[in-house]
Amino acid sequence: MARKTVLVCDNCGREIQEGKGATMRLNFTDARRGSKQADLCDDCSGQLPGHAVARRGRRPKSATAA
Question: CA within 20 to 30 Å of 59's CA: 9, 10, 21, 32, which one?
């Protein structure tokens, strides 16, 4: 028998489609509190406060030559 994992948004309760959605992870500065994680659909993750963060590492060679 095959098993299928179904992801459900922790905010609104709707099913998250394959290849969609996001995982939000909160790390507290106080290490004793640990961390929390939530699965979110595209709509709920787009409504969260905050700003986009640049990706780490060196830019590809083609992007730096331009």
Answer: 21
The per-residue pLDDT for range 11-33, each reduced to its tens digit, is 999 999 988 999 998 888 987 88
Whole-angstrom distance, CA of residue 11 vs CA of residue 38: 8
Report d(CA 16, CA 19) in Å as an integer. 8
Enumerate the H helices of 1-66 as residue ranges. Answer: 42-46, 61-65
Q: How many residues does the chain have?
A: 66
Are 50 and 57 within 8 A, CB to CB?
no
The DSSP call for residue 37 is: E
pTM, full prediction: 0.65
Q: Dihedral sign for Cα 22, 27, 28, 31, please.
A: positive
Q: Delimit the domains of the chain by residue range.
A: 1-47
